[in-house]
Amino acid sequence: MSERYNVRATEEKWQKIWEEKKSFRAVTDPSRPKYYALSMLPYPSGRIHMGHVRNYTLGDVVARYKRAMGFNVLHPMGWDAFGLPAENAARDRKTHPAKWTYDNIKVMKTELQSMGLSLDWERELATCDVSYYKHQQKLFLDFLKGGLVYRKEAWANWDPVDNTVLANEQVIEGKGWRSGALVEKRLLSQWFFNITKYSDDLLEALGSLDRWPEKVRLMQENWIGKSEGAYVQFAVCSDQAQSRLREAQSSRGQDTIEVFTTRPDTLFGASFVAISANHPFAKALAEKNEKLAAFCADCNRTGTSIVEIEKGEKLGFDTGARVQHPFDASWTLPVYVANFVLVEYGTGAIFGCPAHDQRDLDFARKYGLSVKPVVLPPDADPVTFAVADEAYTGPGKAYNSQFLDGMDTKTATLTAIKKVEDLGAGKGTTQYRLRDWCVSRQRYWGCPIPIIHCECCGAVPVPDKDLPVQLPDDVSFDKPGNPLDHHPTWKHVNCPQCGRPARRETDTCDTFVDSSWYFARYCSATCDDKPVDQRDVDYWLPVDQYVGGVEHAILHLLYARFFTRAMKATGHVKIDEPFTGLFTQGMICHESYKDENGAWLYPEEVKRNPDGSGVHAETGRPVTIGRIEVMSKSKKNVVDPSKIIGSYGADTARLFMLSDSPPERDIEWSEAGVEGAWRFVSRLWRQVTEPKVALENDLPATLSDKTLALRQTIHRTIAGFTQDIERFHFNRAVARARELSNALDVLDGKGAGEGAVLREGLEILIRLLNPMLPHITEELWEHLGHGAPLVESRWPVADPALLVETTVTIAVQVNGKLRATLDLPKDMDAKEVETVALADTNVLRAIEGKTVRKVIVVPNKIVNIVVG
After folding, report:
1. Per-residue pLDDT for 312 more than 80?
2. pLDDT value at position 241?
3. Which residues, 6 or more positions from 379, have their beta carbon under 8 angstroms from its beta carbon?
4. In the 8-state DSSP scheme, what is residue 447?
5. Distance CA 418, CA 412 (A)
6. Which of 41, 227, 272, 547 could form an S-S bond across to 59 if both were Cys, CB 3.0 to 4.6 Å?
7. What is the mean pLDDT of residues 460-479?
8. Directed axis angle between helix 641-648 and helix 50-68, to 10°?
9. CA distances (Å), 578 to each of 90, 554, 568, 690, 785, in order?
């Protein structure tokens, strides 16, 4: 590194100045245009990683740029601090989740501050702090009053050893990810947010989010999953084999199994009906069938995520019962209990059409059921068309379907629905894949749900005056399950309505709740008596630019959109959509390495040979170099940001993140890339502190052609760089800065006004790079004699007169081959262009001895000369 530029001293100097001046403090000021720049808040896991560096660098560039453009910028930071990892750490390390969490926050805050981020730390929040979650409890109660919260029994994955509910992702091959115990399905009373009330609105409003990535909007659209279909009833057959099933049904006043389908046009291809292991009829049949009961128990030990079900083997149990086809009572279908049917989706029952659904086809092949095609692909022969190992799910014409034959899919669907309704065997309806949000979690480290359960009064909201319901500090993690259930005193309270002994709700909130409204709390982070101050949220919301990973495209963003609507319905905000603009950055990738025993190695443990092979840095033993993949702690292909910042400085780390790839794409981390970023930073330092031409302050009245052309380059760079920042084309902006730096290096002091133009160019370069390289540009700005720091300066504006193209480069082709290029005045007369082209030395050589038959002039672009 160059000893002339002291990275550490410079970066510490300017970070201290910004802090002392409160340069990034945001104040509500309706007289000024606002800009709310926000990056997704991190989980305090212990140290920042390279993904954090990229995410927060992108957001910081936007915030600094908008501040220079004259906006009143809010750019806050906080911590998504509740969650199971802290509870696991408490168990494993014999510490308290709060201590583990706040210790991590302290470390990570220091690391983020070393990056030079333009954050308003006065608005810092941690979702685990009572000063935050007391307001969340108030919102919960307001939602409850507004009909947006309710309690019901729902199936959950239960770990009988840890005595806790597991998310689908925590069920691994039917076992608890932590205990290894066989997971059970349990019906538990849990709290839900009524997100489905807004299904249509959440779906339709996606069309207005034109500054969101199309892929994210599509992912949300699919998750909400609006579909037109029908409820169809399959009547239970009346012979003796059905007696047990009919007994169960008649006790409920039913004699049918109802399914929901989006493809009623394929009913003539049905070969079975399948019900969930937790369907009332399955449970009734299992009471006298031990094998069925055992099969249902096995089903309840697997996860219920869509991904797991799709990947898993499709298993079924033939109940022996049969149902009648709704279009033909003489046609009966077997009833199976199947592991891929969930009671919480649709009606907990489906009809299987194997020819046109891959899952149904796999099931039918396994159990020897019929496969009857009823949708004929375009151009297929109805006599020979058959389904082998792959179901046909595309469009076509109905056939083998009686009254539907010859209809396209849409017409056949509508006709089938009408027929079902006419027969009294069902009705058309609209369904959504989206389900209400279960927010109950049976764990300690989360926001307590502010409810008291009384045997006389039922579930009673905690009065506002008694908020917050604060987590007890004196908890033990020695026993499995939720420590709040084991606490000797915390849960025991009197009912606020009748005064009798009662108990607190011991479930805490899903941590997605914490991150569903934090952006609103930032607007009035010091407001103590209510979740948000109306004046603040009216001014700052919505967020103008949100930056984060695409992995949050569905749940977090969808929940935040719901929460904003719920806060509007309860009088807290006046907007529907929380984020006007969304940008999802790519991942950071690196080679992975293994030693001879297959153990993962850190990059610093590997030494590369000249031939590209690798050896262990200490033992010298061979190392297997794996593919380039996303950095992960488990594979150890990570790079510690603090080491990079300590060695090269924050500006270099920031520049690398912005330089090599479009920010929405993955980026490969490499030492060569970091070295390249450092070389540019060092060169910039030398260009300003050791200029080749003495710098002058005033531009002369007349400039040489060379300096005039350079001024045009400078101002075109301003225009292009600004456009790139607005469009998130940060890598292109960096490329423009490098080009300008190169252009400034050609001055030799011989032309008129070179010293003044060089000063102008260097100052423009510094100002443009300030959002990306805030420390070195501040230092160089001060070196050039400016009193006020760059953070208080406005963004440069290009001179329109210098953006006008006065000359153009025109290609000259002879019989289609390029023979010359000409720099000519823009919009030059075509005849004059032809004359100049025909007089060019290279063109004359190419047409010598030949007849010019035609000359075609395309204005400002090309001259085509045809000779023969």
Report:
1. no
2. 42
3. none
4. P
5. 10
6. 547
7. 95
8. 60
9. 35, 14, 11, 49, 43
Q: What is the number of other CB atoms lying within 10 angstroms of the CB of residue 483? A: 23
CA 741 to chain centre: 36
Q: Residue 703: count other Cβ atoms within 10 Å of its Cβ.
A: 18
pLDDT of residue 25: 97
Whole-angstrom Cα distance, residue 27 to residue 74? Answer: 8
Token pair 């193209």: residue: 805
Tokens describing residue 543: 């967020």
| Residue 435: CA count within 13 A, CB half-sphere | 11
The model's pLDDT over 316-341, given as tens digits with 9 standing for 90+, comes to 999 999 999 999 999 999 999 999 99
Average pLDDT, the chain: 91
Asked whether 496 and 463 are in contact (CB, 8 A), the reply is yes
How does pLDDT run across 384-397, given as a tens digit for each residue? Answer: 999 999 999 999 99
Give φ, ψ of 426 to 5 degrees: 155, -170
Nearest to 434 by CA among 195, 261, 653: 195
pLDDT category of residue 485 using cuts at 50, 70 and 90? very high
Residue with tokens 């309704």: 421
What confidence tier does 247 reach under pLDDT thresholds 50, 70, 90?
Answer: low
- With H, G, I as helix, E, B as strand and everything else as coil, classify residue 276: coil
Element (H, E) at 857: strand 852-858
Q: What is this structure's pTM? A: 0.86
Residue 253 in this model has a pLDDT that exceeds 80: no
Please enumerate in sequence order all residues whose Cβ is within 8 A of that of 619, keeping only pairs 6 or more positions apart, or say none: none
Q: Among 37, 72, 40, 34, which Cα is nearest to 55's?
A: 40
Angstrom distance (rounded) from CA 648 to CA 471: 43
User: Per residue, what are the HEC states of 523-584?
Assistant: HCCCCCCCCCCHHHHHHHCCECEEEEEHHHCCHHHHHHHHHHHHHHHCCCCCCCCCECEEEE
Rounded to an integer, what distance in angstroms lies between the CA atom of residue 217 and that of residue 862? 43
State pLDDT tens for residues 650-698: 999 999 999 878 888 888 888 889 999 999 999 999 999 999 899 998 8
pLDDT tens for 259-275 read 999 999 999 999 999 99
Closest by CA position to 115, among listed 778, 838, 819, 773: 773
E strands, 600-649, are: 600-601, 606-608, 614-616, 622-630
Question: What would the two tokens of residue 380 be?
Answer: 């297929």
Report whether 584 contacts 213 (CB < 8 A).
yes
Distance of CA 546 to the CA centre of its chain: 10
d(CA 242, CA 237): 6
Closest CA to 670 of 50, 247, 171, 163: 50
